Amino acid sequence: MKKILAIITVCAVLLGCAENVEKLAAKHLDNAKEAFSTANYNVAKQEIDSIRILYPKAFETRRQGIRLMQQIEEAEQMRIVEYEDSMIAATTAAFERIKDNYVFEKDEEYQDLGLYTIKSQAPNRNIDRTYIRAQVDELGRMTLVSSYRGSSYIHHDWLKLSVGELYVDTPESKDRHEFTDLGICYERLSFINGNDGGAAAFISANKDQEITYTLYRKTGPESSRAVYKNLRMTKDDRYAIARLYDLSQILLSLNEHKSLRDEADRHLKFIRSKMKEDVSAEQAVQEDK
Protein backbone atom coordinates (compact mmCIF):
# COMPACT_ATOMS: atom_id res chain seq x y z
CA MET A 1 0.00 0.00 0.00
CA LYS A 2 2.83 2.34 0.91
CA LYS A 3 4.49 1.63 -2.45
CA ILE A 4 1.29 2.47 -4.33
CA LEU A 5 0.97 5.76 -2.42
CA ALA A 6 4.59 6.58 -3.19
CA ILE A 7 4.06 5.93 -6.90
CA ILE A 8 0.93 8.08 -6.93
CA THR A 9 2.80 10.87 -5.13
CA VAL A 10 5.67 10.77 -7.64
CA CYS A 11 3.26 10.81 -10.57
CA ALA A 12 1.41 13.75 -9.08
CA VAL A 13 4.65 15.66 -8.59
CA LEU A 14 5.78 14.93 -12.15
CA LEU A 15 2.40 15.93 -13.53
CA GLY A 16 2.51 19.13 -11.53
CA CYS A 17 6.00 19.91 -12.81
CA ALA A 18 4.92 19.26 -16.40
CA GLU A 19 1.92 21.55 -16.00
CA ASN A 20 4.12 24.23 -14.45
CA VAL A 21 6.62 23.97 -17.32
CA GLU A 22 3.82 24.34 -19.85
CA LYS A 23 2.50 27.42 -18.03
CA LEU A 24 5.93 29.06 -17.96
CA ALA A 25 6.50 28.25 -21.62
CA ALA A 26 3.01 29.53 -22.48
CA LYS A 27 4.00 33.01 -21.27
CA HIS A 28 6.68 33.16 -23.96
CA LEU A 29 4.20 31.86 -26.52
CA ASP A 30 1.73 34.60 -25.58
CA ASN A 31 4.51 37.18 -25.96
CA ALA A 32 5.36 35.72 -29.38
CA LYS A 33 1.72 35.91 -30.48
CA GLU A 34 1.47 39.53 -29.38
CA ALA A 35 4.69 40.44 -31.22
CA PHE A 36 3.45 38.61 -34.32
CA SER A 37 0.17 40.54 -34.28
CA THR A 38 2.13 43.81 -34.49
CA ALA A 39 4.49 42.45 -37.20
CA ASN A 40 7.43 42.50 -34.79
CA TYR A 41 8.75 39.26 -36.23
CA ASN A 42 12.22 39.28 -34.70
CA VAL A 43 10.84 39.55 -31.16
CA ALA A 44 8.29 36.83 -31.92
CA LYS A 45 11.00 34.45 -33.11
CA GLN A 46 13.16 35.21 -30.07
CA GLU A 47 10.28 34.29 -27.77
CA ILE A 48 9.72 31.02 -29.60
CA ASP A 49 13.43 30.23 -29.40
CA SER A 50 13.25 30.85 -25.66
CA ILE A 51 10.63 28.11 -25.34
CA ARG A 52 12.87 25.63 -27.12
CA ILE A 53 15.94 26.55 -25.05
CA LEU A 54 14.39 27.03 -21.59
CA TYR A 55 11.57 24.51 -21.67
CA PRO A 56 12.55 21.61 -23.93
CA LYS A 57 9.95 19.36 -22.28
CA ALA A 58 7.04 21.75 -22.82
CA PHE A 59 6.00 19.62 -25.78
CA GLU A 60 2.54 21.06 -26.41
CA THR A 61 3.71 24.68 -26.19
CA ARG A 62 6.70 23.91 -28.41
CA ARG A 63 4.36 22.35 -30.97
CA GLN A 64 2.26 25.52 -31.00
CA GLY A 65 5.45 27.56 -31.22
CA ILE A 66 6.55 25.66 -34.32
CA ARG A 67 3.21 26.37 -35.95
CA LEU A 68 3.50 30.07 -35.10
CA MET A 69 7.08 30.14 -36.41
CA GLN A 70 5.79 28.90 -39.76
CA GLN A 71 3.22 31.69 -39.81
CA ILE A 72 5.96 34.21 -39.03
CA GLU A 73 8.18 32.90 -41.83
CA GLU A 74 5.21 33.00 -44.20
CA ALA A 75 4.50 36.62 -43.27
CA GLU A 76 8.16 37.57 -43.68
CA GLN A 77 8.35 36.11 -47.17
CA MET A 78 5.06 37.78 -48.13
CA ARG A 79 6.54 41.09 -46.97
CA ILE A 80 9.65 40.49 -49.11
CA VAL A 81 7.54 39.58 -52.15
CA GLU A 82 5.46 42.74 -51.72
CA TYR A 83 8.55 44.93 -51.35
CA GLU A 84 10.37 43.37 -54.32
CA ASP A 85 7.25 43.71 -56.48
CA SER A 86 7.16 47.43 -55.70
CA MET A 87 10.88 47.81 -56.49
CA ILE A 88 10.50 45.87 -59.73
CA ALA A 89 7.65 48.17 -60.77
CA ALA A 90 9.66 51.32 -59.91
CA THR A 91 12.84 50.12 -61.62
CA THR A 92 10.94 48.95 -64.69
CA ALA A 93 9.36 52.39 -64.95
CA ALA A 94 12.83 53.99 -64.76
CA PHE A 95 14.03 51.68 -67.54
CA GLU A 96 11.02 52.44 -69.73
CA ARG A 97 11.74 56.17 -69.46
CA ILE A 98 15.25 55.86 -70.91
CA LYS A 99 15.28 52.73 -73.09
CA ASP A 100 14.60 54.67 -76.31
CA ASN A 101 17.97 56.41 -75.89
CA TYR A 102 19.75 53.18 -76.80
CA VAL A 103 20.08 50.85 -79.73
CA PHE A 104 19.00 47.29 -78.89
CA GLU A 105 20.25 44.39 -80.97
CA LYS A 106 19.63 40.68 -80.58
CA ASP A 107 20.07 37.77 -82.95
CA GLU A 108 17.45 35.33 -81.72
CA GLU A 109 19.21 32.43 -83.41
CA TYR A 110 22.67 32.98 -81.92
CA GLN A 111 22.27 35.24 -78.88
CA ASP A 112 20.69 34.40 -75.54
CA LEU A 113 20.92 38.02 -74.44
CA GLY A 114 20.52 41.17 -76.48
CA LEU A 115 22.86 44.17 -76.25
CA TYR A 116 22.24 47.87 -75.71
CA THR A 117 24.63 50.33 -77.35
CA ILE A 118 24.83 54.02 -78.32
CA LYS A 119 24.43 54.70 -82.01
CA SER A 120 27.32 57.18 -82.18
CA GLN A 121 29.74 54.52 -80.89
CA ALA A 122 28.92 51.83 -83.46
CA PRO A 123 32.17 50.28 -84.84
CA ASN A 124 31.14 50.88 -88.45
CA ARG A 125 30.90 54.61 -87.68
CA ASN A 126 34.34 54.76 -86.03
CA ILE A 127 36.67 52.64 -88.17
CA ASP A 128 39.10 55.56 -88.60
CA ARG A 129 39.93 56.20 -84.94
CA THR A 130 41.12 54.76 -81.64
CA TYR A 131 38.51 55.08 -78.89
CA ILE A 132 36.70 53.38 -75.99
CA ARG A 133 33.15 52.18 -76.47
CA ALA A 134 30.68 50.29 -74.30
CA GLN A 135 27.75 47.92 -74.44
CA VAL A 136 25.30 46.53 -71.88
CA ASP A 137 23.47 43.22 -72.01
CA GLU A 138 19.91 42.60 -70.85
CA LEU A 139 21.08 41.56 -67.39
CA GLY A 140 22.85 44.90 -66.95
CA ARG A 141 26.39 43.57 -67.35
CA MET A 142 28.57 46.23 -68.98
CA THR A 143 31.51 45.62 -71.27
CA LEU A 144 34.11 48.23 -72.17
CA VAL A 145 35.97 47.80 -75.46
CA SER A 146 39.24 49.57 -76.22
CA SER A 147 39.32 49.89 -80.03
CA TYR A 148 42.76 50.60 -81.45
CA ARG A 149 43.63 51.52 -85.05
CA GLY A 150 47.21 51.92 -86.31
CA SER A 151 49.88 51.04 -88.83
CA SER A 152 51.08 48.12 -86.65
CA TYR A 153 49.84 46.08 -83.73
CA ILE A 154 50.65 47.19 -80.19
CA HIS A 155 49.06 44.16 -78.46
CA HIS A 156 47.75 46.25 -75.58
CA ASP A 157 46.54 44.47 -72.43
CA TRP A 158 45.04 47.14 -70.18
CA LEU A 159 44.24 50.83 -69.79
CA LYS A 160 44.82 53.67 -67.36
CA LEU A 161 42.26 56.48 -67.26
CA SER A 162 43.10 59.81 -65.62
CA VAL A 163 41.53 63.09 -64.62
CA GLY A 164 44.23 65.31 -63.17
CA GLU A 165 45.78 63.42 -60.26
CA LEU A 166 42.90 60.94 -60.14
CA TYR A 167 43.19 57.72 -62.10
CA VAL A 168 41.98 54.15 -62.37
CA ASP A 169 43.68 51.10 -63.86
CA THR A 170 41.76 48.35 -65.59
CA PRO A 171 42.86 44.77 -64.91
CA GLU A 172 44.88 42.97 -67.54
CA SER A 173 42.64 41.45 -70.20
CA LYS A 174 43.37 38.57 -72.56
CA ASP A 175 40.14 39.09 -74.46
CA ARG A 176 41.78 40.74 -77.46
CA HIS A 177 40.79 40.38 -81.09
CA GLU A 178 43.19 41.55 -83.81
CA PHE A 179 42.78 41.83 -87.56
CA THR A 180 44.15 43.71 -90.55
CA ASP A 181 42.09 45.45 -93.21
CA LEU A 182 43.68 47.21 -96.20
CA GLY A 183 47.02 47.38 -94.39
CA ILE A 184 45.54 48.91 -91.23
CA CYS A 185 45.89 47.00 -87.95
CA TYR A 186 42.92 46.85 -85.59
CA GLU A 187 42.71 45.63 -82.00
CA ARG A 188 39.65 45.15 -79.83
CA LEU A 189 40.47 44.68 -76.13
CA SER A 190 37.39 43.84 -74.05
CA PHE A 191 36.70 44.12 -70.33
CA ILE A 192 33.67 41.88 -70.04
CA ASN A 193 30.69 41.96 -67.68
CA GLY A 194 31.86 44.82 -65.50
CA ASN A 195 35.39 43.44 -64.97
CA ASP A 196 36.97 46.79 -65.80
CA GLY A 197 38.46 47.77 -62.43
CA GLY A 198 35.93 50.57 -62.03
CA ALA A 199 36.75 52.26 -65.34
CA ALA A 200 33.13 52.67 -66.46
CA ALA A 201 32.14 54.14 -63.08
CA PHE A 202 35.15 56.48 -63.28
CA ILE A 203 34.11 57.71 -66.72
CA SER A 204 30.52 58.21 -65.57
CA ALA A 205 31.59 60.17 -62.48
CA ASN A 206 33.93 62.37 -64.53
CA LYS A 207 31.97 62.72 -67.77
CA ASP A 208 32.14 66.51 -67.56
CA GLN A 209 35.94 66.47 -67.11
CA GLU A 210 38.69 65.94 -69.64
CA ILE A 211 39.64 62.28 -69.38
CA THR A 212 42.90 60.97 -70.77
CA TYR A 213 43.73 57.31 -71.13
CA THR A 214 46.84 55.27 -71.80
CA LEU A 215 47.14 51.98 -73.64
CA TYR A 216 49.59 49.57 -72.03
CA ARG A 217 51.03 46.26 -73.11
CA LYS A 218 52.77 43.68 -71.00
CA THR A 219 56.52 43.46 -71.68
CA GLY A 220 57.68 40.86 -69.18
CA PRO A 221 56.95 39.05 -65.94
CA GLU A 222 55.21 40.59 -62.94
CA SER A 223 53.76 44.01 -63.84
CA SER A 224 56.28 45.21 -66.42
CA ARG A 225 54.52 47.22 -69.10
CA ALA A 226 55.14 49.61 -71.95
CA VAL A 227 53.17 52.73 -72.77
CA TYR A 228 51.77 53.10 -76.25
CA LYS A 229 50.62 56.69 -75.96
CA ASN A 230 48.22 58.97 -74.11
CA LEU A 231 44.87 59.71 -75.71
CA ARG A 232 41.91 61.92 -74.90
CA MET A 233 38.33 60.75 -74.72
CA THR A 234 35.92 62.86 -76.69
CA LYS A 235 32.97 64.42 -74.92
CA ASP A 236 30.59 62.27 -76.97
CA ASP A 237 32.35 59.08 -75.86
CA ARG A 238 32.37 60.16 -72.23
CA TYR A 239 28.66 60.88 -72.29
CA ALA A 240 27.82 57.74 -74.27
CA ILE A 241 29.61 55.52 -71.75
CA ALA A 242 28.07 57.41 -68.83
CA ARG A 243 24.59 56.86 -70.27
CA LEU A 244 25.30 53.17 -70.74
CA TYR A 245 26.63 52.97 -67.19
CA ASP A 246 23.34 54.45 -65.93
CA LEU A 247 21.44 51.84 -67.95
CA SER A 248 23.66 49.12 -66.53
CA GLN A 249 22.87 50.16 -62.96
CA ILE A 250 19.14 50.15 -63.63
CA LEU A 251 19.17 46.74 -65.31
CA LEU A 252 21.43 45.23 -62.64
CA SER A 253 19.05 46.52 -59.98
CA LEU A 254 16.00 45.27 -61.86
CA ASN A 255 17.39 41.77 -62.27
CA GLU A 256 18.57 41.68 -58.63
CA HIS A 257 15.06 42.56 -57.44
CA LYS A 258 13.59 39.89 -59.73
CA SER A 259 16.01 37.33 -58.34
CA LEU A 260 15.18 38.23 -54.73
CA ARG A 261 11.47 38.14 -55.53
CA ASP A 262 11.74 34.68 -57.11
CA GLU A 263 13.77 33.40 -54.15
CA ALA A 264 11.18 34.69 -51.68
CA ASP A 265 8.39 33.18 -53.74
CA ARG A 266 10.10 29.76 -53.75
CA HIS A 267 10.61 30.00 -49.99
CA LEU A 268 6.98 30.98 -49.52
CA LYS A 269 5.77 27.99 -51.51
CA PHE A 270 7.99 25.67 -49.46
CA ILE A 271 6.70 27.07 -46.15
CA ARG A 272 3.07 26.72 -47.22
CA SER A 273 3.68 23.19 -48.41
CA LYS A 274 5.22 22.31 -45.02
CA MET A 275 2.32 23.93 -43.19
CA LYS A 276 -0.14 21.90 -45.25
CA GLU A 277 1.75 18.68 -44.50
CA ASP A 278 1.75 19.41 -40.77
CA VAL A 279 -2.00 20.08 -40.77
CA SER A 280 -2.62 16.82 -42.61
CA ALA A 281 -0.43 14.95 -40.12
CA GLU A 282 -2.35 16.43 -37.17
CA GLN A 283 -5.67 15.52 -38.74
CA ALA A 284 -4.49 11.94 -39.23
CA VAL A 285 -3.51 11.73 -35.56
CA GLN A 286 -6.89 13.04 -34.47
CA GLU A 287 -8.69 10.52 -36.67
CA ASP A 288 -6.66 7.66 -35.17
CA LYS A 289 -7.79 8.71 -31.72
Would you give an account of this structure?
- By secondary structure, this protein is α+β, with helices and mostly antiparallel strands.
- The chain has two domains: 2-73, no CATH class; 102-256, no CATH class.
- Helices cover 52% and strands 21% of the residues.
- The chain contains five helices and ten strands.
- The strands form two sheets. It has a six-stranded antiparallel β-sheet with strand order 1-2-3-4-8-7, covered by helices on one side. Strands 6-5-9-10 form a four-stranded antiparallel β-sheet, with helices on one face.
- α1 (2-37) packs antiparallel against α2 (41-54).
- The longest helix is centred in the C-terminal third of the chain and has 54 residues, at 235-288.
- The protein is elongated and about 90 Å long.
- The two termini are 34 Å apart.
Describe the SSE topology.
Elements: H1 2-37, H2 41-54, H3 59-98, E1 103-105, E2 115-117, E3 131-137, E4 142-150, E5 158-163, E6 166-169, E7 176-181, E8 184-191, H4 199-205, E9 212-218, E10 225-232, H5 235-288
Antiparallel strand pairs: 1-2, 2-3, 3-4, 4-8, 5-6, 5-9, 7-8, 9-10
